[in-house]
């Protein structure tokens, strides 16, 4: 489980592609201080398992299902990625519950400045939008953000300068594809209502 509070920006060192899978090597500093083999790390919001570790990088396998549902297949050597270690039981819970299981993709439709904030409007599918509510939570590339507005085919978030400076959002442009994870609470409520109904 993660909180969506990004700890650092890592860099893809290499990608070894299989027929339907991939192995990522990612350079990092902060998160490697106490990471061990088998630990979970969210990479652009995708929960991956550390399979190899050095003092300056870690490796993780990406299976076919994950490549199909996320934007990890679009990464290349030199790409920057948001990194977060799994939440410690004794840590603060600063964002929202983020499982690291991507629901789908969004495309950045517009970026605009609003005094000290930056607005991002994202287009996505009805299947994703059904769980997005105004003032609810959404994870974009693993970043816990608050939804400001919702339309029939898009939603918007307003992002503070600290988040821009410490995540890959600073490098995102109109047309870029991002990973989206809905707040899991709505999905559980919907399932329980169907069981009760």
Q: Give me the side-by-side strand order of the main sheet.
A: 1-2-5-4-3-6
- How many domain units? 2
Under the CATH scheme, which class of the largest domain? Mainly Beta
Low-confidence stretches: none
Q: What's the arrangement of secondary structure elements?
A:
Layout: E1 8-17, E2 22-27, E3 40-43, E4 46-53, E5 57-62, H1 64-69, E6 80-85, E7 104-114, E8 117-123, H2 126-129, E9 137-140, E10 143-150, E11 154-159, H3 161-165, E12 177-182, H4 184-196
Antiparallel strand pairs: 1-2, 1-6, 2-5, 3-4, 3-6, 4-5, 7-8, 7-12, 8-11, 9-10, 9-12, 10-11
Description:
By secondary structure, the chain is mainly beta. It has 2 domains: 8-85, Elongation Factor Tu (Ef-tu), domain 3 (Beta Barrel), CATH 2.40.30.20; 104-196, Elongation Factor Tu (Ef-tu), domain 3 (Beta Barrel). Helix content is 14%, strand content 42%. It has 4 helices and 12 strands. The protein has helices at 64-69, 126-129, 161-165, 184-196; strands spanning 8-17, 22-27, 40-43, 46-53, 57-62, 80-85, 104-114, 117-123, 137-140, 143-150, 154-159, 177-182. The strands form 2 sheets. It has a 6-stranded antiparallel barrel. Strands 7-8-11-10-9-12 form a 6-stranded antiparallel barrel. The mean pLDDT is 94.
């Amino acid at each position: 489980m993660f909180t969506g509070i990004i700890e650092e920006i890592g860099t893809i060192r290499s990608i070894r592609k299989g027929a339907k899978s991939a192995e990522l090597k990612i350079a990092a500093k902060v998160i490697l201080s106490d990471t061990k083999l088998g630990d979970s790390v969210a990479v652009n919001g995708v929960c991956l398992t550390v399979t190899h570790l050095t003092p300056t990088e870690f490796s993780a396998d990406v299976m076919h299902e994950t490549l199909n549902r996320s934007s990890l297949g679009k990464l290349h050597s030199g790409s920057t990625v948001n990194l977060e270690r799994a939440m410690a039981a004794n840590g603060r819970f600063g964002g929202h519950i983020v499982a690291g299981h991507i629901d789908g993709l969004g495309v950045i439709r517009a970026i605009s400045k609003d005094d000290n904030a930056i607005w991002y409007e994202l287009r996505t599918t009805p299947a994703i939008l059904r769980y997005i509510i105004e003032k609810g939570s959404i994870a974009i590339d693993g970043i816990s953000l608050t939804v400001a507005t919702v339309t029939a085919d898009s939603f918007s978030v307003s992002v503070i300068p600290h988040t821009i400076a410490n995540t890959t959002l600073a490098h995102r442009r109109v047309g870029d594809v991002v990973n989206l994870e809905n707040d899991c609470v709505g999905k559980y409520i919907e399932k329980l209502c169907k069981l009760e109904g």
